[in-house]
Design a protein that fits this description.
The protein has helices spanning 2-16, 24-45, 58-84, 91-111, 125-129. With 131 residues, the chain is an all-alpha fold.
């Protein structure tokens, strides 16, 4: 099991440049830009905007594209950093990470697999982890 974990960690680091960090400050520096970009996309063209009453609006199309090109990739990178550095997280933050993982899985099911299921909201406590 230890060998498998070490091998998995090495593969992840080679593939994504994800690695263990020494401090929360270092982790925060990796997380904050990704969360900020996702928040900006959501604020500008997210489904909570006025166009939500018009599914044919250009913003709806832009949102669908940006979920695939920005939100999901950034979110998967966030999860990889959090998983690789879970030793720097409190028990409450680990729960928040798991809530975020559930949210991301729902986004992927909807936007990549075409499943029309309700999803959980983004856990705002993620912003605290990155601060």
């Amino acid at each position: 099991m230890r060998a498998w974990k070490a091998d998995h960690k090495a593969k992840r680091e080679r593939a994504f440049g994800i690695h263990s960090l020494d401090t929360r400050e270092e982790l925060s520096k990796r997380l904050q830009p990704l969360l900020s970009e996702n928040a900006m996309v959501h604020k500008e063209i997210g489904p909570d905007n006025e166009y939500r009453f018009n599914p044919e609006a250009s913003e709806a199309t832009a949102w669908k594209q940006r979920v695939k090109s920005t939100i999901i990739p950034n979110s998967l990178t966030l999860l990889a950093w959090l998983d690789a550095n879970s030793n720097l997280l409190s028990d409450e933050e680990l729960k928040t990470r798991d809530e975020f993982r559930f949210h991301v899985q729902g986004l992927m099911m909807k936007h990549l697999e075409g499943q029309s299921l309700p999803n959980s909201r983004f856990p705002n406590k993620m912003n605290i982890i990155a601060s």
